Amino acid sequence: MIQFLLNNTPIEVQECSPSLTILDWLRTKKGKVGTKEGCATGDCGACTILVGEERINANGQTSWQYKTMNSCLLLLGNAHAKHIVTVEAVTTGLYPNLTDLHPVQRALVECHGSQCGFCTPGIIMSLLALYINEPTYPGKKAVIHALGGNLCRCTGYSPILLAAEKAYSYERKAEPYSAMAAQFKASLNTQYDGDIPFLKNGPRKFYLPQTAQQLVELKALYPYAHLVAGGTDFAIELSQNMLLPDVIISLSQVKEFCTLADNNGELHIGAALPYSQFVEVFYNHYPESKELFERLGSSQVRNSGTLGGSIGNASPIGDPAPLLIALNASMDLLSSAGTRTIKVADYFIDYKKTVLKSDEVISKFTIPKRPESLKLACHKISKRFEDDISTVCLVLAIEHSQNMITQARCAMGGMAAIPKRAQHIEQKLISQSLQVSSFIDAATAINSDFTPMSDVRSSAHYRTTVSKNLLQRIGIEFCEPQARNNNNIAITRISHASL
Amino acid sequence: MRHFEMDKLKAQGGSVGESKYHESAIKQVCGSANFADDNPEPYGCLHAYPVLAPVTSGFIKSIDTSLALAVEGVKRILSAEDVPGKLDIGPVFPGDVLLTSHEIQYHGQPVLIVVADTYEIARRAARLVVIECEQTTPILDIKEAISKEHWVRPPHSLNRGNSENAINNAAHQLKGEISIGGQEHFYLEGQIALAQPDNDGGIHVQCSTQHPTEVQHLVAKILKKPFSFVNVETRRMGGAFGGKETQGAPWACLAALAVYHLGCAVKMRLARSDDFKLTGKRHPFYNHYHVGFDENGLIEGADITVNGFCGYSPDLSDAIVDRAMFHADNAYYYPAATIKGNRCKVNTVSHTAFRGFGGPQGMIMGELIMDDIAAKLGKDPLEIRKLNLYKKGRDTTPYHQTVEQHILIDMIAQLEQSGDYWARKKAIKAFNVSSPIIKKGLAMTPVKYGISFTVQHLNQAGALVHVYSDGSIHLNHGGTEMGQGLNTKIAQIVAHGFGVDFNAVSISATRTDKVPNTSPTAASSGTDLNGMAALNAVNTIKERLINFITEHFEVDSQSITFKDNLITFSKGEISFSELANLAYMNRISLSSTGYYATPKIHYDRAKGEGRPFFYYAHGVALSEVEVDTLTGENTVTRVDILHDVGSSINPALDIGQIEGAFVQGMGWLTTEDLQWNDKGQLASFGPANYKIPAIGDTPAEFNVNLYNSANPETTVFRSKAVGEPPFMLAFSVWSAIRNAISSVADYKYTAPLDTPATPERVLSAIEQTASWFKEHQHD
Questions:
Q1: Residues A478 and A384 in one domain
Q2: Could you tell me if B720 and B711 are in contact, meaning their C-beta atoms sit under 8 angstroms apart?
Q3: Residue B565: exposed, middle, or buried by beta-carbon count in 10 A (0-12, 13-18, 19+)?
Q4: Is A98 in Cβ contact with B763 (below 8 Å)?
Q5: Cα B232 to chain centroid, rounded
Q6: Which of A28, A100, A116 to mutate to probe the B interface, most B CBs <10 Å?
Q7: Are residues B161 and B264 in the same domain?
Q8: Which of B374, B398, B422 lies at the terminal end of a domain, its last residue?
Q9: How many CB pairs under 8 A join A and B?
């Protein structure tokens, strides 16, 4: 059985299609139609909901944390033990007045921030999460990062940006959801009998193992089960490509897979830990990685998606892979035979083909301690800055001694059937002096490393040209102190509001 | 045609001119504003999903539905043979086929529908139908269509003077060409219709459409029934932008067809990827020009050809390409002009209306020509633009309409000053010299956009106003609400007319059984037409009330005023609600229809002469951009807009339209990249690979002001239409990007820049500019 809290109502489900998303469940089974389907692929944000999750801090205190997710990507089974908050719970009552509204709703009305109103419930939920998690107005850039995954086709966003700030101008409204959730969780804990939460519909099943042991046993029982973590990719296979798997095993609540440790700078990141739960630790050591993580999907996707999902999926265009490869990260693969550790760089074989064996599951990633002289550059090129798939993703990590490059690891996405190292470029960089011309020279090896494709995102010619130019940009940023002007603005970057 | 003394009404004060919130705003933020998919489904409601053709061009050889029929929950599969009436649903000219049984003309063209218990089952089963086809070679390239004269409608041209001579005799000549990308509407609410049998033996359709009357007509025609058999209802749309003018109809027809055969309610909703594949978009265009001008840059003659990429059928393309031709001058006077327009037939979905209706694809030619002349003469583009503006004595368009209002001259002057054009231009030039990688650009572009449907009979509207005996008011009109705030504005007009509070007016869904024979809510005309019709209804009721007061209280009608919920006359006053009750008790009718038809317009298409537009709406935008010369990435850092909405009925809603249109136009010109692959399949078929602007793309500084000027024509409260015109202000962004790129050659050359100006196209233009400069550096 799956149990969770919907607004203020405890829900128990057992008989249900294992591939049902929360969005479809809300709209077709519960009549909760305030949550809209704009695209059903996690790109528009109209179906944004809040998902509350119990967290335990270092002192053992529990609290509930509310984050936005795309309900079209959240499988019903993954909601177990969570608190789903929909737009219907923000202001209750049939005919509220302006002053009855929650501050984020009132602000949006007063700023004329809804026109057709279809994206509006999603916008409200993203604004609400921001309001709950930021006690004071966090600034325009934070608003942009919070709402980058909420598309609006009518307003041009100006009034929405204004509303995000205006919401803080009224008397602050307390968050009522944690208290509901704590009560629900207490009753859930008293009922819990150690069974693996599951859903079934005829022969089709969904399992939500809570421990690595349970997972390994299930995987042995159902070797061809489909694995899912955050579901940001897999849910689309189910709802749009109409995949109908017999057995789905979700890794999202395997507690060993949701850990995070910083051992003197060596990072251990559980494969099922969503991005938003580890990036801050990552930034402590690699602030340069913000360029990728802040632009990876949307806030909703970063609250659901995981490293295990991205790497496990073996997409040639996922942004984490080039970063992990360039940082010489390794990954643990768990099976009933135990755990083996491999380099992320050795994981990919060919398009969507990897060294992962059928009984193995990715459990953890380890990023080595940052070498003292490491310089890291992460560059993403896409048609749009926010919530877009990389045309090219280039990550370069070099080490240097005095003025000489001693080590180089360069990995790129979007340039081949797999995320791949640029070994010719690396070789051309090593032993060169740390100056712009070394990078421009090394860039000429791009054709030895890659023969990219032309597709909907760009031509092969652009991919090659821009990769070369990015190496030049990196050279300037690494080597020229004047790469930032007097106002600390990079002379190599445009000033897009989301950067 | 009757007109109203608006200035007198206005002096009375009231709702008009106030920034009222959108009438549904509170419901929208609470998630309780229901769209067509949100209302509870009728008991036993079935779901239909289309079966799509697997090839781009060819003929169906066989269809095997056995696997689909075997799926549990599948009720019926319907084909063209099951359509009792007309199969062609072309809105103006035939060519749009509801379901094809023989010839396939674009990839994904609907062949059948599967009707099943649930949406998921219908969709899953639709994929199990096997269609075998004989493939033929599709035409996908517009230049191939042009060379083969493959048209959906015959070519047409506008002529004034002898442009060939004028060009040849001019001191300078220039030629140029541009490919202009299409645009997916990306209304957040996809296409949907729910049809059900009604209690009176007919069919009731709730759907997301800008044109309920056309849906009514088409449903009736495919079912071989009178129009009165069908009632179409639209409360609100989750965005439309032209994409629900004709494109909402097929799904409503198919749902109604299923109702006809199965006798129960049927819903049809397209998944987003199929909505992308099966609905028309803004027409891509390929245009070229030849102009002659003097040493100052003053145009003497222009020869412009616009080629619209229409897709497989006419749909609205005749009028869309006409509008592109009407706007190829934008705000500039061509003393002699030849404007040719071709409607090219290619094997894609049939392209359709989209905010601007071809106007943008024509208007870009004016801006392209101005920038190219400036580069050629080494002058600032703004100088060239100002020089060529329509002005008194230089005021006849290529279609022989006289431009009577010349406020653009003043609007540009105002923005030049408030936007600090010349100082910023100087600062940007200095910045570009010192910045090797990032280049800035600045451009100011005007918009002059013609208001009226160019199909004359559409310029009419109806409304229905009831005053209940407690003084509350029910309003209905023929326009549809898609987010633009039409209902809000018309409620303001009605409240203003009666001198009552805005809240006294309640608005209900647009229904063909309430207001018949309506025009689409399109061409920016919603408020102009329906607002005037509603005001007409109000005035009819008011006239009865005034007559009643005159008799009942024995007062002079001249002394009667309606203001602040009170009716004041020489002997006293009475509240509006008391008056309503009193009038009812004295058997005075408190309900009226209202009707309006736009005056003055006429057009002889064969001659290309007349006054197709009642008036023009104007705007000016000044945009500043940054361009990365290593990657082609670009961003808009500041935009200043001055826009002419006449006397605004609701400044907040008008500014919302301007901002939204600008950002949508910016998306069309920068990130929104529609692509079809070489097989004719749409390659950018969802929001994952088709990128509309996101929140960070909004200009970092965005100043929008309304130009203070009443419409000289007698429109409703002297306002002007606002839906489409500001879309084209976004040319300032495209032009500013060209300006930034041009700095690479010290502004001596301006490279062609097709749209959308994606990072890839911008980088390619930069490379071209740099290599030109290398060659000509020492000239």
A1: yes
A2: yes
A3: middle
A4: no
A5: 22
A6: A116
A7: yes
A8: B398
A9: 280
Q: What angle do CA B43, B48, B50 make, to 5 degrees?
A: 175
pTM: 0.97
Judge: A109–B21 Cβ closer than 8 Å, yes or no.
yes
ipTM greater than 0.90, yes or no? yes
In a domain, B472, yes or no: yes
Task: Locate A19 and state its tokens.
Answer: 């591939």
Per the CB < 8 A criterion, the answer to whether B648 and B710 are in contact is no
Test A497 with B124 for CB contact under 8 angstroms. Answer: no
Owning domain of residue A408: 375-483
**A469 and A402 in one domain?**
yes
CA of B572 to nearest chain A CA: how many angstroms apart?
A: 35
Pairing of strands B299-311, B337-345: parallel
Domain shared by A210 and A130, yes or no: no
Which tens digits make up the pLDDT trace of B77-136?
999 999 999 999 999 999 999 999 999 999 999 999 999 999 999 999 999 999 999 999
Residue B438's pLDDT band, with cuts at 50, 70 and 90, is: very high
Identify whether A496 is part of a domain: no
Q: Across the interface, do A143 and B630 touch by the CB < 8 Å criterion?
A: no
Same domain for B21 and B168, yes or no, is no
For residue B154, give the 3-state DSSP assignment.
Answer: strand
Q: Cα angle vertex B150, ends B149, B151, to 5°?
A: 100
Structural domain includes residue A255: no
With contacts defined as CB-CB under 8 Å, which chain B residues touch A35? 31
CATH number, domain with residue B261: 3.30.365.10
Residues from chain B contacting residue A498 (CB–CB below 8 Å): 694, 696
The contacts of residue B482 (CB under 8 Å, 6+ apart) are: A116, B187, B210, B236, B237, B239, B240, B241, B244, B521
Residue range of the domain that includes B546: 6-33+460-597
Query: Is residue A327 located within the same domain as residue A471?
Result: no
Q: CB neighbours of B424 closer than 8 A, spacing ≥ 6? A: B442, B624
CB B691 to CB A383 under 8 A?
yes
Mutation pick from B19, B27, B28, B662 vs chain A, by most beta carbons of A within 10 Å, is B28
Number of domains in chain A: 4
Place of tokens 């079935």: B46
Residue A270: partners with Cβ closer than 8 Å, 6 or more residues away: A256, A257, A258, A259, A260, A308, A363, A364
List chain B residues with CB under 8 Å of A456. Answer: 673, 675, 677, 683-684, 689
The per-residue pLDDT for range B13-68, each reduced to its tens digit, is 579 999 999 999 999 999 999 999 999 999 999 999 999 999 999 999 999 999 99
A chain contacts of residue B686, beta-carbon cutoff 8 Å: 39, 41, 43
Eight-state DSSP code of residue A391:
S
DSSP B393: T
- Catalytic site residue from B481, B624, B724, B760: B724
Instruction: Answer yes or no: are the C-beta atoms of B253 and B172 closer than 8 Å.
Output: no
Would you say residue B394 has pLDDT above 50?
A: yes
Q: Determine, yes or no, domain membership for A492.
A: no
Q: Does residue B591 fall inside a structural domain?
A: yes
Whether A299 is in a domain gets the answer yes
Q: Do A387 and B694 touch (CB under 8 A)?
A: yes
Could you tell me if residue B296 is inside a domain?
yes
Q: Which residue of A has its CA nearest to B662?
A: A156
Task: Give the integer Cα–Cα distance in Å for A201 and B149.
Answer: 57
Nearest residue in A to B656, CA atom: A155
Q: Is residue B64 included in any domain, yes or no? A: no
| B659 is a catalytic site residue | no
Bond preceding residue B756 cis, omega within 30 of 0: yes
State mean pLDDT over A127-137: 98
Min Cα distance A112 → chain B (Å) is: 6
Whether residues B145 and B287 fall in one domain: yes
Within 8 A of B46 by CB-CB distance, chain A residues are none
